[in-house]
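Design review, sub-item: ligand-bound model
Attendees: FS, YL, KQ
YL presented the inputs for the manganese (II) ion complex:
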Amino acid sequence: MKHIIGHKNPDTDTTCSALAYENFLSKQGVDAKAFALGKLNKETEFVLEQFGVEAPEQITELPHGTEIILLDHNEEKQSIDNLKDLDIVEIIDHHKVKIETDKPISIFIKPLGSSCSIIAEKYFDTNTQLSKSIAGILLSGIISDTLFFRSPTTTDVDKKLVEKLNDIVGIDDLEDFSLKMFDAKSDLGDIDVEDLIRLDYKTFDFSDGTYGIGVMETTNIDFGLNRKDEIVAKLKEIKEKDNLKGVFFVIVDILNEKSYTLCSGENEIELFKKLFNATDKNGVLFVDKLVSRKKQIVPVFENM
Ligand SMILES: [Mn+2]
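KQ shared the predicted structure:
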């Protein structure tokens, strides 16, 4: 059996695309199952419950030689702990290619707003029957990753796919549905500060070292900003512990398309201000329209 796995710190796109691809492959007679590398966030739980889809089993390692399909990621650091022992047979993703493989494999990468868009296209292109529940989770994954088309990663293809999927799902008010998703994502209760930072966290190798960048997409920025001191202290701790050049925590106001970034030290504050022309209010770095780590933040660091 092929194991389909999304990235660590699973989000709605990675989880729903993996689940939908399991369904797609089963219709082609391929034995495959989706797994999650960690606890699902509340947005994903809301979406799965909404469409009656069971959450994937959580794993951290797989037996030596297991055949795996990577969904929504292709970097080792974002993948399963013992990736080196496993047999990658396929990659489906919408991020830039970073991986080296020891043999030819199927790689399917498209510059779309979400991995769910790629899976949805596979259904439509092959006229594969698409149930209301699978169409529902695909539509949700696209809405989540594109911040309901607010993110600059959005393409016209994503918009058309949501329309086509909603012909099957039949949601009357998509804007209202997206707000419910984002509110679910923003409802973090009394989450531990490190868990908050690592909810959607990735590390990147830039020219002068490795950096960590966490993103909190929210409809309630105060949830993050009210814990500023605690978050900054933890960013410093993570920087030391993980031996990083710097750590950033970007609080994204989804509905107003603005961001507020916290940093692990003075050098990082200066760097971020310089790179993004940010306004500094007591260590909170404000940038209008900066919402996408993939399309807006990482490329700027890569060119510094
Ligand atoms: Mn994605």
